[in-house]
Fold this sequence. Notes:
Chains A, B: Its EC number is 1.17.1.4. Chains A, B: It holds the Pfam family MoCoBD_1. Chains A, B: This is Xanthine dehydrogenase molybdenum-binding subunit XdhA. Chains A, B: It comes from Zhenhengia yiwuensis. Two copies of one chain form a homodimer. Chain A is of the alpha+beta class. The first copy, chain A, folds into three domains: about 15-130 and about 200-275, Aldehyde Oxidoreductase, domain 3; about 290-455 and about 610-755, Aldehyde oxidase/xanthine dehydrogenase, molybdopterin binding domain (Aldehyde Oxidoreductase, domain 4, 2-Layer Sandwich); about 465-605, 2-Layer Sandwich (Aldehyde Oxidoreductase, domain 4), CATH 3.30.365.10. The first copy, chain A, has 21 helices and 27 strands. In chain A, the strands form six sheets. Chain A has an eight-stranded mixed β-sheet, with helices on both faces. In chain A, a hairpin with a 5-residue loop joins strand 13 (about 290-300) and strand 14 (about 305-315). In chain A, helix 7 crosses helix 8 (about 255-265) and helix 10 (about 320-335) packs parallel to helix 11. The longest helix of chain A is centred in the C-terminal third of the chain and has 28 residues, at about 530-555. Chain A is globular and about 90 Å long. Chain A starts with 11 loop residues before the first helix and ends with a helix. At the A-B interface, helix 7, strand 17, helix 17 and strand 24 of A face helix 7, strand 17, helix 17 and strand 24 of B.
Amino acid sequence: MSVGESVKRVDAYEKVTGRAKYTDDLCPRTALVAKVLHSTIASGYVKSIEIEEALKVKGVVKIVTCFDVPSHTFPTAGHPWSTDSSHQDVADRRLLNTHIRYYGDDIAAVVAEDEVAASRALRLIKVEYEAFTPLLTPNEAMHATSAPPIHENYPDNILCHSDFEIGHYEEAIKDPDLIWFEGEYDTQMVQHCHIEPAVSFAYEDNHRMIVVSSTQIPHIMRRVIAQALGVPFGQVRVIKPYIGGGFGNKQDVLYEPLNAFLSKQVGGKCVKLELSREEVFTCTRTRHSVQIKLKTGVRADGRIVTRKIEALANQGAYASHGHAIVSNAITGFRHIYQQEKAVKADAYTVFTNLPCGGAMRGYGIPQVTFACESHMQDIAEALHLDPIAFRMQNAMQLGYKDPFLGITCYSSGLKECVEKGMEYIHWHEKYPAYQDQTGPIRKGVGMGIFSYKTGVYPISLETASARLVLNQDGSAQLQMGATEIGQGADTVFSQMAAETIGFTLDQIHIVSTQDTDISPFDTGAYASRQTYVSGMAVKKTAALFKERLLSYAAYLLKVPESTLDIQNNEIINSVTKDCLITLPALALEAFYNLDYASHITAESSVQCKNNTISFGVCFAEIEVDLALGRIKILDIINVHDSGVLINPQLAKAQVHGSMSMGLGYALSEQLLFDAKGKPLNPNLLDYKLPTSMDTPDLAVDFVETVDPSGPYGNKSLGEPPAIPVAPAIRNALLQATGIAFNSLPITPHKIIEKFKENGLI
Amino acid sequence: MSVGESVKRVDAYEKVTGRAKYTDDLCPRTALVAKVLHSTIASGYVKSIEIEEALKVKGVVKIVTCFDVPSHTFPTAGHPWSTDSSHQDVADRRLLNTHIRYYGDDIAAVVAEDEVAASRALRLIKVEYEAFTPLLTPNEAMHATSAPPIHENYPDNILCHSDFEIGHYEEAIKDPDLIWFEGEYDTQMVQHCHIEPAVSFAYEDNHRMIVVSSTQIPHIMRRVIAQALGVPFGQVRVIKPYIGGGFGNKQDVLYEPLNAFLSKQVGGKCVKLELSREEVFTCTRTRHSVQIKLKTGVRADGRIVTRKIEALANQGAYASHGHAIVSNAITGFRHIYQQEKAVKADAYTVFTNLPCGGAMRGYGIPQVTFACESHMQDIAEALHLDPIAFRMQNAMQLGYKDPFLGITCYSSGLKECVEKGMEYIHWHEKYPAYQDQTGPIRKGVGMGIFSYKTGVYPISLETASARLVLNQDGSAQLQMGATEIGQGADTVFSQMAAETIGFTLDQIHIVSTQDTDISPFDTGAYASRQTYVSGMAVKKTAALFKERLLSYAAYLLKVPESTLDIQNNEIINSVTKDCLITLPALALEAFYNLDYASHITAESSVQCKNNTISFGVCFAEIEVDLALGRIKILDIINVHDSGVLINPQLAKAQVHGSMSMGLGYALSEQLLFDAKGKPLNPNLLDYKLPTSMDTPDLAVDFVETVDPSGPYGNKSLGEPPAIPVAPAIRNALLQATGIAFNSLPITPHKIIEKFKENGLI
């Protein structure tokens, strides 16, 4: 037994002792340093660049400008490639750009012997611009006349229009008995704030380009770098060491193509490109700011009859994942609640002159869930319905099958999650108790539920592989294409392999580094897919590996394979459970037997054509100081149904991290810009990422369903916990004060304003 | 087509441009440095060691002495392990030794922040010895009374006695018609002199020991280090980058176990241990000095009736490969010539207080061939037989089957090799022309033949594996356990894979680095086995890989797999040869097809239960200046039958390098010691390795037989060319002067002496 145990992380010792090697730790002492020159306007063109003075700086090796790079464009989103061009990601970037699309766009790069020389040179480069008034909001951008389109082939700046309709909305709204509710909600632009910045180094080896990078998607990055350089994919090799967090930002290919290009410019020498925190905030990816309008027709008894969502996503300067994210958001809207007659969605992803929106933990669902769960609360209160009963009455049921995607809800612990949460927070006492308060300090309880898919099927390809190699001492190497990004993937994969083979965990040595030259293929860490999809690859490969061990044992022991099994690193009689030979002894024979030596390994790939739904809920109890506009979290809990937990302790840690991300999203985090599109707070001091001092105790609980589609009964967990926190707090604040905050983040500044408006202070 | 073509080395560009990464290039900037304290006596015991002063040196981190290491012993020979203890290598070493067995034995080690501090500390360590008179020759050692045995469990210092008898020797010698010949020959101790010294660095990662080392045998080294540390094999990981030559010295595990132990002593920090040239000469391995007595009974017509060999091999201080080498030598004696009645062999491998004999290119055969081919020449001249006709009359014939090993001579181009050599050197004119010369400057032609096995079967296990991985662009990664050690293995393996799959060579990317965590298992580079045994693994794996490509193509194209083939990276109709789909297009489908995505890889291992025999000859024409005792090589050629040549240009380069090694062996190289066993010339200046200035033009030719047992008709080539050079020169000198030199090397010093004795000067 190993699956289901809270074993210690396999990388705990290395990481706690500071020995784990990250990208920068591996960079050769002789590497050159690259720095990027970013535009100081948000929209326009580079007319000319003067580099003469910069070139004179001692230690400068090479300067490349936007006039020196290939003219072809490439996509950066970390999606599997498609052989169908209409499903390929949007190729809208060059390595450096003459057409400037946001404040901080990449227009030149310096390669120097050290960082000081590179920085000095940057300051000496003179750029002449032709500037336009930047378009900062979707509305501005969709109706712009002042400036040329942000991307020539999108005249109205609309990257994508996503919509669907189930039932006949126009018919449904004619129903005379309906009570109508409308709400407008908007969410802010936030950033991932992974501890390790985007960093890579690149060099040529035997005419091939080697890139060592902090990425969630080494195999996809290999393809994108090759596309950017215009070389065959096999000419690029990507190596991924331990990484210090990604949260979706590193599910995009960021500066690696430029890094590789710069190495080629200096004859294949090793060049390092590490972003500053300011650059990470401005020049990598963000969570989309989305404006959402909801309209719902309900019967007096609380049955939802028809719903409509309209969404406007601010994509920023480049496409990245954009089109996929708002369409995922409206799918999420479709999933969590059901309706009697019709549901309709209309969403636009719009280019603006702001930093680029991309993948971030939750992929559109935190935005839509904030809107949806705020809206549901408002409806319940207006109809004097119990807000929880109202939700459960309309929530997705076990066995739900999506009419478009065909995916099924194979397991649901939503009801039990809600019950556990209510009990923990003492809902039955506190919800009534906190109604209609007065006075300067008030309390409230609030909650929000969510549902979340597992992986990307059928929207995109789901495939993964694994390899197992027997060692001379009977232990095994486990090699994955799936990536450890701090979430504990290496540990759970090791547990899965041990479980299926019949080994103790210490006999599985996982190869943590991915190297696209030799690691099995996997699309990488995103969409909470790895324990589900890559887990299937581990299970299949481990079964194959076990079969080969047993077949060799059958040869040695001269007994039928069918009578053998493996338990605690021993080949046993499957009936009597007696040990027939230990794995160390078997391994020595397998390697060195003069009659029959065989190197026992197994490698296999799976294609996952399934998906399932996770559920969860957040309950929060808050106290608000009206005069200070200060919210204090008195108690908060997330309860999740993520199917079987491979490692409960790691699962809990996942939820902790994700809840704190949800708290920042709800209360403090926001990237701000001035009227010219210049970022105002691209640093950890002004951005207001919650620190441990700002973080209350976080309670976590689970309802373990056994999902029949998961390799070990498991389903998605990595992203979901971030989703329900903001609406739970918003709804608690609503109960405490009667004021509905429909715009994130709910900062003291906004609170004071609204309290004044409403005469609370 | 790729096999048989003289394609450029796959690593040529990296190596010529100095970009190829060797062990030291990869060592982290922060590594600590280890240096070893060597004994200054050749025989005795360490009574005490004072390290107090040394510890005070700034930068010294740790000092370990022979009193601090585990008491268990371990073997160092690079042989496959055996599950039968009687066939395991001799475990006669500790990490550091209190019992000193040669001048330079390892008695303590310093770990410091830099080399200067380590060296300073070494000089401050005080050692008190109990010294014995060293035993420097086998005869001394076998009959020693003055000193205790060199190894307690070998009272008479005899490591091993190897013998055999075919027919009844005692009967055979009774034949009255026999003409008897006897000869005594001895060969010197030489060293490999690879350019890159023995070097490694070691560190702990996640409680496992990682050792990066310049070795020919990473997988075997993993096992030996684990044995030395007393941990399970899987707890050790060995990484082998490009290496700067080995020639057999790196078929032994040298200082890696001590390096790993020292890293453990400093808490798993990275420690580098690089030997100086002096240490490489004295403290690694050497070619055994062997004294050989031959006795042959011949009929007047030149038919050999019976033969006997007696050999005494000077093993030096530790067992290493010793016992195997002299037994290989007498097997070689048995193979090259046949006899009417009987052949007998009696060989002893004897411990002495000299540096340790180990594996070196030829593994005993250069020694025995010098004796044998000198002896054959002497017999021919005494009987006035044509020396070549006499040899061919008695040489091994096609189809020969060894009575003990059961291995068969599947192919023989010996006759054609000799004919080509005779023609090149103009034997028919020169051999008669150079008879009975007078005057101060004389010329001579001489020759020697040899035969050589391929790999180690059935004496030891032969197994190898390979892995192929399809890239997203349709090219393939080839991953071998077999090692590139400068000989061109990576190139020929790539050619084999391209040939069998139907790819062009540029579509095979070989992974040159071996990493025991992930590289397929292979015992490594030795016994000229890799193109033969590992070549079988490439062929089997490539065929499997091709089959999987064709089966996926059959799915895509909806045609039977049997109608498909691969040519020039295209799936073709096997009859019409029309291209049906290119590999790049197929690969994109295989990775990204939404209906059927499959990660195409292949991995397989082979066990080789066969062996075959290579042949060759060296012809040399020399000029000797009697007064100066100087030999000038006027012309020299090696002609080889190594079966099909995978890459003729690389094969030629192999022969060039090996011939120059043979020239040094014949004329100048010898490790010298004083009466106390102290090495006198352990450096490249005094040792007299021939430089390019000393090396004449080297002619090379081949006779390409097709060996039915070789994967591509190939058989051994790496070691053989070093074998016949010395006897050819010795025999040429005999013809020029009438003087038989039976002791190597034939230095001017020895020549002058012998000429004086014989009144030539």
